[in-house]
Amino acid sequence: MSSYNLSDNYPPFLIFLILFNFSGTMTTVFRLITIKFMKKDIHPEMKDVKIECACGKTFKAQSTRKKMEVEICSNCHPFYTGKEKIVDKMGRVEKFKKRQETAEQKKKEQEKREEKKEKKREKEEEKEDDEKEEKNKKAKKGKAETDKKKKETKGEN
Questions:
Q1: pLDDT of 77
Q2: Which of 21, 73, 103, 127 is the most buried (most CB within 10 A)?
Q3: Domain 44-86 belongs to what topology?
């Protein structure tokens, strides 16, 4: 079993960078390592590419593609800008807005129904109160009449 020795192929400062993991230079070190150990003629060619955002900003990067387009970048993303931006894919936004509108309409209709029911209950309560008052009046009249009759019968005796 043979072990791989880094010092055979790389100078000491690269070994130091690899072992102590300096983040700023690690990408270049790993690129050097991968270039040395990659199999030839099986990997796609990396090219410098301009990435274009829908807002108009362009970025430079490396990719196997010739051209890249994105809908949202760090320049126009709502998390970074604090502004609302709607990205519509296949009418999802319209569907969502339509659902919100229908939900609001249903809510308003429900409130109207509840108001009608409340008014109906109030009218019924008023009718019941009126009926109770009439019964009380009749009962008082009836008592007054019976009291008169009692007085008259007492007066005759």
A1: 78
A2: 73
A3: Rhinovirus 14, subunit 4 (4.10.80)
